[in-house]
Amino acid sequence: MTPPSGSFLETKENPASAPTAAGPGVVDFRLGNGLTVVVIPDRRAPVVTHMIWYRNGSADDPPGKSGIAHFLEHLMFKGTKAHPQGEFSLRIAEIGGQENAFTSNDYTAYFQRTAKEHLGLMMEFEADRMTGLVLTDEIVAPERDVVLEERRMHCDADPGAQLNEAVQAALFTHHPYGTPIIGWSHEIETLDRQDALTYYARFYTPENAILIVAGDTDAEEVRRLAEQHYGKIRPRGAAPERRRQREPEPVARRLVVVNDEKVEQPSWQRCYLAPSHHTAAPGESEALEVLAHLLGGGQTSVLYRKLVLEEKLAVAVGAYYMGSALDETRFYLYGMPAPGVTLPALDAAVDRVLAAFLAEGVDAGALERAKTRLVADAIYAQDNQAMLARWYGAALTTGQAIRDVQEWPARIEAVSADEVIAAGRKWLERRRAVTGYLLPENEAA
Amino acid sequence: MNKPFATPAANGTVNVRELVTPRGVRAWLVEDYAVPLVSLEFAFRGGAAQDPIGKAGAATLLSGLLDEGAGDLDDQAFHQALDEKAIEISFHSERDFLGGRMRTLARHVDRASELLRLCVNAPRFDEAPFARVREQMNAQLRHEANDPGSMASRAWRALVFGGHPYGLPANGDVQSLAAIERGELKGLARELITRGALHIAVVGAIDETRAARLIDDVFADLPANAALKPISQAPFAGLGGLEVIDLDVPQSTIRFGRPAVSREDPDYIAGVVLTHVLGGGTGLSSRLFREVREKRGLAYSVSASLTTYDRASYLYGGTTTKNERAHESLDVIKQQILDLAHGGLTEEELEKGKKYLIGSYPLRFDTSAKIAGQLVHIQLEGHDPSWLVERNQRIAAVTMADARRAAERVFGDGALSVVLVGRPAKA
User: Fold this and answer.
1) pLDDT in the model for residue B14
2) Angle value at C-alpha B368, between B366 and B371, nearest 5 degrees
3) How far is the C-alpha of B76 from the C-alpha of B88, rounded, in Å?
4) Cβ of A444: how many Cβ atoms within 10 Å?
5) What string of DSSP letters covers B301-355?
6) Order of strands, edge to edge, in the sheet holding B242-246?
7) Which residues from chain B sit within 8 angstroms of residue A94, using beta carbons?
8) Nearest CA-CA partner of B177 in B99, B97, B49, B60
9) How far is B83 from chain A (nearest CA, A)?
10) Which residues of chain A have pLDDT under 70?
């Protein structure tokens, strides 16, 4: 349920494999029915990560049916005509595999991790459930209860999660990113078998899917197996269109407050509407990535140094840019006040530090360190095939190409100090943002 | 039925060498040049269980301060030095050990080694980071104060282990953290951070000579012997009881457990297989998942596993379910445990459980950091590298008779110690 963070991978620094236009060993191709395939070889352990991604997420839920993308993700484990009643899951368990799935704003993905010799078997089952899902009311009803319990557990019992939902709902007044991925309770309660099947028929098609295989395999083997299993799925002619209403240009600064008796540690957040990797002008999302790191990426960042170390107004503070999104996205600042510091005081202090940073410009050493860190992340990522697979999947389902992922370190290297400041001035404006306060029951904002 | 179908963990891929450095420090090494990085994982036996009386959280605070200034670098200078080369160094405190890890690009291994050497040999414990990190721990405590999951886990430990070190909060509480003095942490560091308590694994683009030099540079000058206080076998209280903690939330969060066989016990491996059948894995193969979630829709998550520490071993599980059906969920869980205790395990469940545990083992070894972590874990459990193969052979050898015997010993009369946080409807 948590989308991967914005840092991406693959660099020219890997001496083990000669750099090519396609990057170290990554190969992509398309099957005749339109299914996109990406292969990420990693020969170190005899295991594979097999993922199928669909280019639809909660932001594609029809009006009044919030939560249907996530609910269908649950129902996809229920069985097909050929493999009824959880046979897929039981088979995976039997071979010592692991499986799971996740739904995000922009995508839904399913994956298995197994010993490499089971890759064909995983494809057989996964291809089968792209079209063969069987649902009855007896299956759908208890699973809807499970989802409602999931929502109660992660949202309704947690005031911090309630604040997050309120901030998103306030930030996106028109675009569907303002609706929680899991859906609103009163709408989840109404989702039924027909809703699920209608949604399934619309989105679960070869043209809308991306197969990603990482691990101890190669393009030739993946192509052969993919043709055999996924290749026989009938094409629908075109991928379904994703039509989302665009968020209007924001004009009002907003404050949302959750008071709850369970809160003993107040917290603060600010969420700005900002362009994503997909919607940004060239270089802008890279500048936002560097900006987030400079402002709130660890203990040497500007906000941490000023507010935690020097002024001791906060015990924690950070920044995060969620660049991986199909439409306009979020840039976060967040913090926890030190004892005795009110949230309005922390709020004002953050604005003061931010304004000073944008006025004074970027320290050259700090800029170098930020880039070093972001580029090194790309090398560290090569150590983890499951993470690589997720990064490619998230990129390809949010409007990016493989080349975009591979050229990311070079584009980060190219970010200038002026571009960082320009991006901050343009996008970190109060009128573009919602501020959220989490407070104890009787404390006024 | 018991044909050994063991596929050893990454047989031939996790090629562990045991090395002894010129200065006599032992370590396990996996040389692998596929990605140009080096992962180092290490642990000093004796963690939060060694917290001084009345000072719960001391080891956690200590581990939070080891990377907050060392040698002639204060906290800011130290973090800037890490940033300059994108070197990662971190420490964490567990019940029985204080762990650390370092990750660096291979070309910066010398600098990483210097910085890590400072952390373990010359931590500064300056006043400012001491006050800051303690306040961050306090903030975390306040943050979790009314979180049902944190409340239930804490209360369950206190109920079961009482005043034993395992019953105390590893992250302390507001009073115990306030009682810790800076000077005491220096003393605790001298007691805990020693060669005698140390286990090390190095994985990545580094050869044996270079790895040995790295290890000697960092660890060889540490004091030889740890001054650990002995920890007694933990008690287990509250069996058959249910402690309800009132919290106004729509769900009941439940933690349950009972004593089980220790890691050294001949029935331990059979116990692992058995508890996997009860509540392990990722879904439908678990009885609790099938009965609580799949058939009845009572909960999103439900699981159970065999948890072991140096001085305790127990079945531990939990679920979160709507208040109206909390007692029903608990009854279903108890019924499944009793059924397994009374010989309800089927041949099919046993075989599938074994196959899962054997087949999934290689998935723990697919990144450098995971390999290094596993290798230190294996050392802490007292095994040598042959365990990488032997572990699956031992699972493969578990017979129905073994499993039945272990079921009687692990599940016994099925009595549980239970903590529930929420507002459950009357049973």
Assistant:
1) 81
2) 70
3) 15
4) 9
5) EEEEEEEEETTEEEEEEEEEEEGGGHHHHHHHHHHHHHHHHTT---HHHHHHHHH
6) B242-246, B417-422, B251-259, B312-322, B299-309
7) 285, 352, 355-356, 359
8) B60
9) 6
10) 1-24
Structure-block tokens of residue A422: 């320009």
Provide the edge-to-edge strand list for the sheet that holds A108-115. Answer: A27-30, A36-41, A209-215, A47-54, A108-115, A98-103
Residues of A with catalytic function: 73
| Tally: H helices and E strands in chain B | 15, 11
Return the H-helix or E-strand segment holding A29.
strand A27-30
Q: What is the DSSP string of B25-38?
A: -EEEEEE--SSSEE
Q: How far is B76 from chain A (nearest CA, A)?
A: 7
Residues 6+ apart with CB under 8 A from B28: B16, B17, B18, B19, B200, B201, B202, B375, B379, B385
In 3D space, the residue among A127, A147, A158, A157 whose CA is nearest the CA of residue A234 turns out to be A127
SS3 of B261-310: CCCCCCCHHHHHHHHHHHHCCCCCCCHHHHHHHHCCCCEEEEEEEEEEEC
Tokens 């229920």 locate to A78
Whole-number Å distance between alpha carbons of B102 and A404: 30
The whole-model pTM stands at 0.92
Q: What percent of chain B has pLDDT over 90?
A: 89
User: Looking at beta carbons, which residues of chain B come within 8 Å of A369?
Assistant: 80, 83-84
A41: nearest CA partner in chain B: B34
Most A-contacting residue of B68, B146, B277, B302 (CB-CB within 10 A), to test interface: B146
Q: Which of A32, A381, A387, A72 is nearest to A212 (CA)?
A: A387
Which residue type, as a one-letter code, is found at position A366?
A
Between A and B, how many residue pairs show a Cβ–Cβ distance under 8 A?
Answer: 193
Can you tell me whether residue A36 is helix, strand or coil? strand
B203, B10 Cβ separation under 8 angstroms? no
Measured between beta carbons, the chain A residues lying within 8 angstroms of B299 are: 146, 149
Cα radius of gyration rounded to whole Å, chain B? 23
CA distance A14 to chain B (A): 7
- The span from the CA of B51 to the CA of B176, in Å, is 10
The percent of chain B in helix, strand and coil, each rounded to the nearest 5, is: 45, 20, 35
ipTM (interface pTM): 0.89
Percent of all residues in chain B with a pLDDT value above 70, rounded to a whole number: 96
Q: For the stretch A144-181, what's the b/e string if a residue is b when 16 or more beta carbons lie within 10 angstroms of its beta carbon?
A: bbbbbbbbbbebbbbbbbebbbbbbbbbbeebbbbbbb
Q: Per residue in B293-342, pLDDT tens?
A: 888 888 888 999 999 999 999 999 999 999 999 999 999 999 999 999 99
| Per-residue model confidence as pLDDT tens digits over B47-90 | 999 999 999 999 999 999 999 999 999 999 999 999 999 999 99
CB contact under 8 A, B139 and A315: yes
Helix (H) / strand (E) containing B90: strand B88-93
Q: Rounded to 5 degrees, what angle do the CA atoms B371, B374, B380 make?
A: 145
Nearest to residue A298, comparing CAs of B82, B361, B261?
B82
DSSP H helical ranges for A235-321: 284-296, 302-303
Tell me how far CA of residue B315 lies from CA of B97, B152, B255, B258, B421, in angstroms.
21, 16, 11, 5, 19
H/E run at residue B98 = strand B97-105
Residue B11 burial by Cβ neighbours in a 10 Å radius (0-12, 13-18, 19+): middle
Residue B25 reports pLDDT greater than 50: yes
Query: Angle between the B75-85 and B109-121 helix axes, to the nearest 10 degrees?
Result: 160
Distance CA A116, CA A214 (A): 10
Cross-chain CB nearest to B366 (options A47, A369, A376): A47
Nearest to A299 by CA among B62, B78, B91, B105: B78
Encoded tokens for B407? 């079921």
Query: What are the chain B neighbours of A439 within 8 Å (beta carbons)?
Result: none
